Amino acid sequence: MKIICAECSQEARNNAAVFAPCACGGLMQVEHDYAGYDVEELKHRFDERLRDRMSPYASGVWRYKELIAPELEDTSIVTKYEGNTPLYDANEPLLQYAGIKHLQFKAQSQNPSGSFKDNGMTAAVSHGHSLGYRHFACSSTGNTSASLAMYAGWIGAEAHVYVPGNDIAMNKVLQTLAYGAHVYPFEGTYDDGILYLEREADSLGYYVCNSINPLRIEGQKSIIYEIAHQLAWKLPDWIIVPGGALSNATALGKGLMDLYSLGFIHHLPRIAIIQAEGASPFHKFMHDQGNPHGTLQPEEHPYTIASALNIGNPPSWRKAMRYIQQCNGITASVSDEEIMNAKAIIDASGIGCEPASAATLAGLRQLVENQWIHPEERAVCVLTGHMLKDTHAIESYHLSSTCKNPFANPLQPIHLSI
Ligand SMILES: Cc1ncc(COP(=O)(O)O)c(C=O)c1O
Ligand SMILES: N[C@@H](CCOP(=O)(O)O)C(=O)O
């Protein structure tokens, strides 16, 4: 494994400094030498591991270790058997809402800490652990922090998490606290926390577990490997993900390129990145100035009810842009109202998700309406977080007096005659 700058290809001085940006300002990325890999042999090995229940290879991430961190010692792996999440077929109301005939939901919400972050976090924490770190850190709107706190607790290490003092979901902060993390609320957004950690992590002795760490991205690639594996290595036409810090856009894009260049798949699906209108710098960049030489204009005061997407300066935007271009992807943005309406349909289908995840269905509906996606095309929406991550959003949608939604249940007491 080599760690190089994604922009100027400069090699990292040592494997420990993977989360510090390169002198040119670029983020680092992992490069593997997959030469000599036999795809059929790997497919067979991945199938065999589906029967494993106990070893690290029973994890839906480490099952694909050869593509993620081949050199890592098995004894360094820190796993909660993350991944292994279901791929659900949409029911009739979901299909009708989306306006297409073939739709599935990849429920990363069913990961051990309740979000897709676990796929990347197991790789980052394992790498930090293998290097002897005992202090792990992140800036977070709540899911990264809960995931990190879970893994740190699991190995008895310290998690230091920096969370914006406003506009985040309290359930996630409580989950993080309960796992035993040191929680530091601060004035500002996720973006400020990242700047702080980029500058201070080294002197504080922290191993940073945000998506600026390329090992997080390597672990998160497993989401697309697992979808492909579940579909017998035949991916749909569209993969739809919400966009915040753009870790999924980057990881799923990189994972797709691995699968394609190794010959696991023979056609590249298109990725659609859906941002919330109030926090959509990447969508604006791709649409308004979508030329490869432009620069993303950060949004200074990002705000959306989908608090996980409250990110104004997504660190991975350059990497994401390249992957979007390579797979002929697109971006869209949706309003908070569209997000909450889509969430109500996903929740009522029995699958459930947090608001940020529902941006996928809202975006899909919009893209079908605008004829970017044909009703006969196949799509998978990645549901990134669990519905109980943000019960405040559920309360305001279903129980507020101004609520206009068709599923509202005002919880009127009834009289039981017994
Ligand atoms: C539930 C949820 N969905 C989506 C996102 C955005 O994903 P990304 O940062 O990979 O763009 C996040 C946070 O980043 C999240 O917590
Ligand atoms: N929603 C995220 C913010 C992005 O974090 P990153 O760890 O992917 O950089 C969160 O849960 O904190």
Offer a few descriptive terms.
about 425 residues; Rossmann fold; 12 strands; about 40% helix; about 15% strand; globular; binds pyridoxal-5'-phosphate; binds the ligand N[C@@H](CCOP(=O)(O)O)C(=O)O
What is the secondary structure topology, with strand pairs?
Layout (H helix, E strand, L loop, with lengths): L1 E4 L22 E4 L7 H11 L15 H4 L18 E3 L2 H7 L3 E6 L9 H14 L4 E5 L3 H12 L3 E7 L5 H9 L3 E5 L3 H15 L2 E2 L5 H7 L1 H9 L7 E5 L4 H16 L7 E7 L4 H8 L28 H10 L3 E5 L1 H13 L6 H15 L8 E6 L7 H9 L19
Parallel strand pairs: 4-12, 5-6, 5-8, 6-7, 9-10, 9-12, 10-11
Antiparallel strand pairs: 1-2, 3-4
Bound molecules: pyridoxal-5'-phosphate and the ligand N[C@@H](CCOP(=O)(O)O)C(=O)O.
Catalytic activity: O-phospho-L-homoserine + H2O = L-threonine + phosphate
Cofactor: pyridoxal 5'-phosphate
Keywords: Amino-acid biosynthesis, Lyase, Pyridoxal phosphate, Threonine biosynthesis
Any overview of this molecule?
It is a single chain. By secondary structure, the protein is an alpha/beta fold. The chain has a domain at 87-114 and 216-399: Rossmann fold. It is built from 15 helices and twelve strands. The strands form three sheets. A six-stranded mixed β-sheet has the order 3-4-12-9-10-11, with helices on both faces. Strands 7-6-5-8 form a four-stranded parallel β-sheet. It has a two-stranded antiparallel sheet with strand order 1-2. Strand 9 (238-242), helix 10 (247-262) and strand 10 form a beta-alpha-beta unit. Helix 4 packs across helix 5 (143-154), helix 5 packs parallel to helix 6 and helix 8 (214-220) crosses helix 10 (247-262). The termini are far apart. The mean pLDDT is 95. Bound molecules: pyridoxal-5'-phosphate and ligand LJ64HWYM. Pyridoxal-5'-phosphate binds next to helix 10 and helix 14.
